Amino acid sequence: MSRTHPNVKIIFGNGFPHGGASTKRCYHIAKGLQENGCTAEIVVFRGTERGENTENKLISVYLMR
User: Fold this and answer.
1) 41 contact partners, CB below 8 Å, separation of at least 6
2) In this structure, what DSSP letter does residue 20 have?
C-alpha cells in the first residue's frame, strides 16, 4: 500500500517573505514538510504591502526543494 502525503497550508499573519524570527520559523517549517514529502503552502491573510510599493508580485509562493 502506498502512503499519500498531506497537503499542508500554513495560515500566517505576519510579513512574508521578509520579516523577523516568526517569518523564518514559518518558512523553515514549510521547507521541512516539503523535504519529508508533503506539499506545503504559506497563506498570508493580512496584506503587508500597499499600492505602488509592492515587492511580492506572485499570488502563490511555493518553496522549491
Assistant:
1) 7, 8, 9, 10, 30, 60, 61, 62
2) S
Q: Is the pTM of this model over 0.85?
A: no
So where are the chain's domains? 1-65
Say whether 53 sits in a helix, a strand or coil.
coil
Residues 6+ apart with CB under 8 A from 54: none
Helix (H) or strand (E) holding 42: strand 39-44
Tens digits of residue pLDDT in 26-46? 889 999 999 999 999 888 876
